Amino acid sequence: MRKAWEKRRATAALEKESLAHPVCCCGCRARLEVAKNPENQRFFKPGHDSALKSLLRKINRGEAKREDIPQAARANVARIKFIQADPEFQKAFAHHPEQKARRQPKAASGDSVTSETSSL
Question: Is 110 helix (H, G, I), strand (E, B) or coil?
């Protein structure tokens, strides 16, 4: 439980830092103006969102690693609208998609297992 709270505090500190000194989420680290209203804060320089989109597409195709996603984009993934609107972009941020596969339930030792050969 302690590790979970430490991670949560670190994430909150990172979000606070990203709102205080915003940088472009494409990875170029260009400084952005601080908006008076945090809901209106911009996350990219004009035209730089396409760089992040192409990186996310490369990750989905397997041509790039998840570690290549800029830290600013990771911190603001919940606020970037085009990522939230497209499930393919959300897959690039998933930690381990192979773990999400459903496992087959194991048969209990007392249950009878039917197969095609047992009916003959």
Answer: coil
